[in-house]
Design brief:
The strands form 2 sheets. A 4-stranded antiparallel beta sheet has the order 1-2-3-4, with no helix packed on it. 0% of the residues lie in helices and 42% in strands. The chain is mainly β. The chain contains no helices and 7 strands. It has strands at residues 22-25, 31-35, 44-48, 54-58, 65-71, 74-82, 87-88. The protein is globular. The protein has one domain.
Length: 89
């Protein structure tokens, strides 16, 4: 399954070909983490807020990603929760 990202000035719009389970702004406001469901392999996409470009795709959950959050003191850390009954850091 492919995900398409289209940049848009100021809004940084990212278009997905699947539903989005959750989103979270990064502490600096320069990135958004978006969790997608199991049929997309339970991935988390990091998106640039300025351009809408994909920065990184994280894999690890086997089911719906229901929550994501950045560590406010260490923005390089992200925690996620999933319907697969796991929390990942």
């Amino acid at each position: 399954m492919q995900h398409y990202y289209h940049g848009a000035s100021r809004w940084g719009t990212a278009h997905f070909d699947s539903v989005i389970g959750c989103v979270q702004y990064g502490p600096a406001g320069d990135a958004i983490a978006a969790g997608v469901p199991a049929h997309s392999n339970g991935r988390i996409h990091l998106i640039c807020t300025q351009t809408g470009a994909k920065i990184l795709c994280l894999k690890g959950h086997s089911d719906f990603v229901s929550s994501v959050d950045f560590n406010p003191t260490n923005p390089s850390q992200l925690v996620s929760g999933s319907s697969d009954k796991t929390i990942r850091l």
